[in-house]
Each structure stands twice: as C-alpha cells, then as structure tokens.
Amino acid sequence: MTPRLTADFWVKAYLRRLSLMNIPAFVVCRGDETAGAVYVKVNTLDGRASAYQRSYDATGARIWVPLAEGQDAEVEASLNRQREFDPDIWIIEVEDREGRSLLGEEGLE
C-alpha cells in the first residue's frame, strides 16, 4: 500500500513542480490540510478553462478526471458548486496558454 500524502504537502509539491517549469499557479481555495479534496483548474487565458479532480480507477490507482471544460465562467461555477458541497476542498488555478498542468507526470497521481 502506497502511503498517502497530506493534501497540504501534495499542493506544495505540485506548486513547486509547476514553478520549476515556469508555469504560474496559485491556491484559490485552501482546504483541509490533511485530507481535503484537491481540484486543479487550468486557465488558458483565452476565456476557456478546464477543471480536474483526483479520483481512482478500477484498480484503485489515483488518476485525474475532468470535472468541467469550457468557458472560464462555467468552469468556475462548477468549482463553486463543489465548494458549496464540501468547504474543505483545495482549488489550485494554473495559468498557461498551452494548457499545461503536469497532472499526467509521474508522482502527481
């Protein structure tokens, strides 16, 4: 069994990895430090965005799945609904014209 990282630790590591690639990102909503769910919004700075949430596949491995995609306001509304449902969530906003999030890279599952 793989040890689980705290949400706070994972977020800090993720922001650092983005910083090393010169991809701007910031915490929009700070959730529970230990076990808050993490959502990542990727803003392409052209009025469009996408949001991802961590989930599990059929084998139990952690994966990132799309939550919403489209106009930035629609994606933001979707994240706000999640926040109303669970006030302990983290929301990280990544701003990258190329839409890079690094979520598919090893170690970010």
Can I get a quick summary?
The chain has 109 residues and is of the alpha+beta class.
**Beta content:** 25-35%
Helix proportion: 25-40%
Number of strands: 5
Helix/strand-derived category reads alpha+beta
Uncertain segments of ≥5 residues (pLDDT<50)? Answer: none
How many whole angstroms does the radius of gyration measure?
13 Å
Summarize the biggest pleated sheet: 5 strands, mixed
Order of helices and strands: HEEEEHE
Q: CA-to-CA gap between the ends? A: 14 Å
Under the CATH scheme, the architecture of the domain at 40-98 is 3-Layer(aba) Sandwich
Overall mean pLDDT score?
92
Shape: globular
CATH superfamily of the domain at 40-98: Protein of unknown function (DUF1491)
Q: Could you tell me the CATH topology label of the domain at 40-98.
A: hypothetical protein tt1805
CATH hierarchy, class of the domain at 40-98: Alpha Beta
Which strands sit side by side, in order, in the main sheet? 1-5-2-3-4
Counting DSSP H or I runs of 4 or more residues, the number of helices is: 2
Note down, in words, how this protein is organized.
The protein is α+β, with helices and mostly antiparallel strands. The protein has a domain at 40-98: hypothetical protein tt1805 (3-Layer(aba) Sandwich). Helix content is 26%, strand content 33%. It contains two helices and five strands; from the N terminus they run H-E-E-E-E-H-E. The protein has helices at residues 7-20, 72-85; strands spanning 25-29, 38-43, 48-56, 62-71, 90-95. It has a five-stranded mixed sheet with strand order 1-5-2-3-4. It starts with 6 loop residues before the first helix and ends in a 14-residue tail after the last strand. The mean pLDDT is 92.
